[in-house]
Design goal:
Largest sheet: 2 strands, antiparallel
Structural class: alpha+beta
Number of strands: 6
Number of helices: 8
Shape: globular
Strand content: 5-15%
Distance between the termini: 17 Å
Number of domains: 1
Length: 240
């Protein structure tokens, strides 16, 4: 399915109908290379962003409380494994913090396979986990990370510190060796963002980092609000 939108306006980038993105139904084109993106030096989060994060994180925790009980029961009944999964993530300035999620993979996935990004039809993902991931509900515990200030609602995804990417010709590549990796750490990582919404799950990290670089350059309240609302729409459709 293609779309005829030509300009997102508040996103500050061009939209093309040549490559529809399945999650949002909107495509972005002509993104700049992440390694050459120029950003200003003032990267502190504005007060409005922090107030927004705290307000909606509290509302989200309260309103989703019944879901937490149902999700916990479903995870436990499937394989008797732990309900939550916490691992180190890389945040703003390269600072590491524990990122919380509902467990969506087999309990021993990290030990057997290492810190690999999940792929479509990943055999490590459980049946319950597949449903949670489709609606983004596995990330509900990250509301706690947002309240703590480790994360924001909108920003580049918080990655695993030793995560690797598998390339067909060059084998295993550490993500810190990919152009654009450092730029994305100049802002607070987010639960959702340009790359999370517009980029397909299976594209190379280099391309995802280009989306992150665009966010760093164009960040602002109205962009955050648009991405925040788009995320609700994607979750409602179960298209994550």
């Amino acid at each position: 399915m293609t779309h005829s939108l030509e300009d997102t306006g508040d996103l500050g980038v061009q939209v093309s109908a040549t490559s529809a993105i399945p999650k949002s139904g909107i495509a972005l084109s002509r993104l700049g290379e992440g390694s050459s993106t120029v950003v200003d030096d003032t990267l502190a989060d504005p007060l409005s962003k922090r107030v927004f994060d705290i307000t909606f994180a509290i509302l989200g925790l309260i309103s989703s409380a019944p879901l937490w009980i149902l999700i916990a029961l479903a995870i436990k009944l499937e394989d008797r494994g732990p309900i939550f999964h916490a691992n180190q993530r890389v945040g703003k300035g390269g600072r590491r913090f524990p990122g919380y999620k509902f467990r969506s993979m087999t309990p021993d996935s990290d030990e057997h396979h290492g810190p690999l990004q999940a792929s479509p039809n990943d055999h490590r993902v459980t049946r319950v986990g597949r449903l949670l991931r489709a609606a983004g509900m596995d990330e509900l515990p990250q509301f706690i990370n947002i309240l703590k200030g480790d994360m924001s609602f909108v920003g580049p995804r918080a990655l695993l510190p030793e995560e690797i990417e598998i390339k067909e010709n060059s084998g295993l590549v550490p993500i810190e060796a990919i152009p654009g990796y450092e730029t994305r750490h100049r802002v607070t990582p987010g639960l959702t963002g340009l790359a999370q919404i517009y980029a397909r799950r299976d594209i190379p990290r280099r391309d995802k980092f280009r989306y992150d670089a665009v966010y760093v350059r164009c960040r602002g309240f109205w962009l955050d609000l648009r991405l925040f609302l788009l995320s609700f729409w994607i979750s409602f459709r179960g298209k994550w």
